[in-house]
């Protein structure tokens, strides 16, 4: 065994979306960081759809950006189509989405990592952890190299004991063409609970074999919405090969590419139904639970028999490739069946499959084994982020990676932990759901999961979180400076709302009329402030009553939410507490009474007993 001579503050295993954000967060906090990946050629790869954002996911990307993360800016730089979803609905459910150039997104991130000070990037397959006492002290790779580190962040994606399925044939691997990881064996030996999940991906087609004239065109928004709150940072020069878009004269310039929509039909469904016996999902070959909200085409046909067709979105994978992603047709059926059902679809009658769709089973660790910092309860200094925690999606993974990397670094530096409340961010909702309730299927974020979603809009993520990022060191000086200027402009506009009048009405009242929008303002007034400032103020005024009501609900909930529970409390001491409640509370060890209230199996009666007991038995330990 060769012991690498350089010690690290933080070691990150895996260079997918979670690993990248974890490593960059640790570096921003000043920690010497090592990022280990099985394959340096697939850093930041978009294994499924090359798209960022969407409903609730777009909110998280803007939160990641507000906290100094890389995902939003990289999507801005490499996007090929940008849209704001749900523009006809209320502001809490509007969300940005970008179709990206798959390779540009990946290569731009790799170049950024290679150029980042304090960050070492190395290829290596981690097989086991090195412990010192009960705490983590480093990792070992399959080639016999040991790296020492004070904290380890595990972001293994679908690679732990990954098994790929195409029909009744299977092969090991975490992604088509990539090898597998046996790291979950080490976790089992350490006493971690390990289970299995399943996910899948559709086939990719060649664009020159598709008849797009038979499909419905879907174009991007003009002007294209950005993810990043930073106004610049997209300068382009001869060395920036993978920055496709740029800011010029204060405008975001993108050469957008259309996507296309077609539909399955009765023939498609017949082909699928006739071959369900060859699906590993329906023949019993797959043991892992799949994602409820991203079902395979087989699931759609079986479970929604009343539907005579399903939408398929044909989404280009880049400017310089003819690969087209068939969104909505995730499948694990045999190649010949995929060939037949694809060619039964309008516009795809002569389509050629470049890559078949497949399912992948993989190991994950139920996330109730984690603290809110994403540090494991069993091994101090060990953090989990991404699909190892049972989530699905690039955005969910990146959000966890940022929090895990930040907390690993903060612990090394002896600073306070970084935890986001449910009322502060979708990231807070995500992590609280995972560590408190757990998940019985791959977890996907939705706006409906957030109790205070009118406060957690995508447009105010920097107002909610950049101050938090600045306080713990995650925000760069440039980001801090821009945000302070934005706050000044916002406050300046608020001060002028009563004085400025349109149609004889103060702007503070004018905006409350549904038909009045920022676009209807006289140009002399509108030009005084940037559009994002106007949009923030307009939303706050139009929904002022609803926002005020939600703020009151939050204030009442915070008193309950923040009441702390002592670490290591013996719940058996609380007389009258049901056995199920004792078991669940002891297993999860909630940090607050609010967190305890969200544990499955803990009833309001249990909470009342706990609250009374805390007040009487531990009054001296709990601050008012």
Could you walk me through the main structural features you see in this protein, from its secondary elements to its overall organization?
With 624 residues, the chain is of the alpha+beta class. The protein is built from 20 helices and 25 strands. The strands form 6 sheets. Strands 1, 2, 3, 7, 8, 9, 10 and 23 form an 8-stranded mixed beta sheet that branches. A 6-stranded antiparallel beta sheet has the order 15-18-19-20-14-21, with no helix packed on it. The longest helix is centred in the middle third of the chain and has 20 residues. It is globular and about 70 Å long. It starts with a strand and ends in a 7-residue tail after the last helix. The C terminus is likely disordered.
In short:
This protein is α+β, with helices and mostly antiparallel strands and 624 residues long. Helices cover 34% and strands 19% of the residues.
List keywords for this structure.
8-stranded mixed β-sheet; alpha+beta
The residue ranges in which pLDDT falls below 50 over 5 or more consecutive positions are: 618-624
- The assigned structural class equals alpha+beta
**What's the tally of helices?**
20
Overall 3D form: globular
Q: Helix share of residues?
A: 25-40%
Please give the radius of gyration in angstroms: 25 Å
Mean pLDDT over the full residue set: 92
Proportion of beta-strand residues: 15-25%
Kindly report how far apart the N and C termini lie: 53 Å
Number of distinct beta strands: 25
Largest sheet: 8 strands, mixed
